[in-house]
Every structure is written in C-alpha cells, then in structure tokens.
Amino acid sequence: MSATKTKQVITSIDTACTPEISYAPNEWKTWEDNYYSKSTGENFSYKLRYPRDFDVLRGDSASGGLIGNPAVQLAFPEDAFQTPKTNYGEAYLVISMGTDKSSLDGCYKSPQPGKELSDTQVINGITFHTGTIRDLGAGSIYDSKIYRVLVDGRCFEVTQTIHTGNIANYPAGTATEFDQSKAMSILNQILETLTIATSTNAVSFEQKLAACNAIPHNSTQKILETTRLFINLPKDIYPDEEHNLKFSTVSGNATAGRLGNCGSPGTGCQSTPECWSYYCQFDGNGEVDLNVKSAIKDMPDYFVRFIVSSTQ
Questions:
Q1: Are 278 and 230 in contact (CB under 8 A)?
Q2: pLDDT higher for 163 or 241?
Q3: What are phi and psi of 195, to 5 degrees?
Q4: In degrees rounded to 5, what are phi and psi of residue 55?
Q5: For the range 126-132, what are the long-range contacts, defined as Cβ-Cβ under 8 Å and sequence gap of 24 or more?
Q6: Cis before 70 (ω within 30)
Q7: In the prediction, which pLDDT does 312 show?
Q8: Which of 252, 226, 246 is nearest to 290 (CA)?
C-alpha cells in the first residue's frame, strides 16, 4: 500500500519524580504512529508503551529491523546494566514495515535461508508469526526475536534484540555472562502493550473491488475459450500475492491459468500500489470457479464462476 506518514506522537504520562530508574508501567510513555493512504482514504496506526528513560530513534536512525523500512527503535539507555560488569552491549525493540514485493513475499520467512517463521503468538488480538535468530561477527553476538504479520497491505515487524560481546574475548575475571532475561522481560512487557488499528472497513468491500477494476464478486462471467483477461484484487484483503488465485474445474474440460507475458504474478499491467493484477487465459469448454481467500475477518472470500465455450 502506498502510504504517507502523517503523524508521530510521543505522549508523556504524568508521574511522580523519583531519583532512581524505574520500569513501573505507570511511569511509561506512549509511542503512536499513524499512516494515511491518499488513494483509499484508509488509516493504519499502531501504539505501544515504553519506559520513560528509553532512547527513541526514528526513521533511518532506527537500525535493527530485518524487513522493509524502520519506523522506530526503543532502546535501553547507555547506562543500563552497567553493574556488575558483564558482556552486555545494548538491547532494543524495533518496529519496521515493508510494502514492497520482497517484504510481502518474505514476511513469514526467516532471515535464515530456507527457514519459515513457523511459530505464532497472539498479541492483543493479532496473530504474529515468530522466530529467533543469532548473528555472530567481530566478537559480537546479536540474539533477536522476530514477530511479523501481514496487515493492511504491509508486512509489520517487531524485532527484539540483545547485543552482547563474546565472553571468551574478555580477560579472565573482568566480566560475567549477561543474564539476557533481565532485558528481555522488559522488552516483552513493551511488546504486550502493542495495539494495531486499521480503518479497512471504512471503505466497503464493493468500493475496494471497484477501485481495482475487479470482476464483480459472486458473479458469473460467460467468455470464449482462449480469452485472456485481467483479474485484479485489493492487496490489503488478499495479501498472498503468489497463492491468491485458486482455479478449479467444475464441469467439462475448461481450465484457467496465469500468463507471464504481462509481469510476474500479481504485478501485471494493471497493478497499482493498492491492487494486484493477474493476467490469465481460459481454455476448453465448461465451467471454472475462482476462489480467493480473504485475510480480513470482516471481508469475504472472493468468488467468480467462468462459463467457457467455443461460441457465444
């Protein structure tokens, strides 16, 4: 989805002054990000809370994401976990989002080649695909937990990372192994406050189809064999670009399939930032059904029946 960021807000929560660092939830701040799509009039937003002394880095300064573009990094302050002396380096949570083909196709794939984010976790009503990775290099160790979900035409990612030094590189007796649970417990508390809101239902299902110049839902189309046509679908309702189209022969020997001479699947000649476009050909005689699974609870699966014949 093509989106323009319209607002970034940090709201402080009134608290009593205290001379010591505290991670009591009633002393946390709130981070909120809102995005608006000019083409559809839809809003997408997320919100979460974090300790008041955390460092907040935005946009390109928010390194540590693993997909798309970083939106914000919430990090422990530099003086955190300084005593006793350990191999602790830093710890942070990063929000990233991607709307490009690579991000959408790879949303549920692990950064480790050939692996999937096979576990799931529900956070405030949203089911995330999760996994862990470890990155080693130059005496540093980065342990990360990844959470991703396809929502509103984007891959939304949360990454929790703890950076430590290789304990073997420290002189004997100068440092101990950092207890990562001390940092991860706080990062998990932040994650538990995450909420995501969309205004997908603000625009009706029919309006979304019309905006993509889609064939009407639940319609019957009579066409001639060898007919070629575009099948267009809204990305936010049907985000699985590679596997959206499910054709099945109902009668006769009629078949349907995608063609590759007008772009790769989903990015055909009529595609837009909000709409997939598939160029397809119908052959034989009989009936073929098209079924497409919706990814949004309140939006229906898409269905069209094609009656294919050699004559009108």
A1: yes
A2: 163
A3: -130, 145
A4: -85, 140
A5: 126/151, 126/196, 128/158
A6: no
A7: 67
A8: 246
For the ranges 111-120, 242-251, 268-277, which has the lowest average pLDDT? 268-277
Tally helices (H) and strands (E) across the chain: 3, 18
Q: Is the pLDDT of residue 245 over 50?
A: yes
Quickly name the fold that domain 204-309 has.
Immunoglobulin-like (2.60.40)
Q: What is the pTM of this model?
A: 0.60
SS3 63: coil
Q: Which of 176, 163, 175 is nearest to 93 (CA)?
A: 163
CATH 2.60.120.1690, applies to 4-201: yes
pLDDT band of residue 25 (cuts 50, 70, 90) is: low
> Which of 304, 308, 298, 281 is CA-nearest to residue 216?
304
Which token pair is 240? Answer: 């699985």
Give the number of C-alpha atoms closer than 13 A to the C-alpha of residue 130, restricted to the C-beta side: 15
Domain ranges of the chain: 4-201, 204-309
CB atoms within 10 A of CB 145: 19
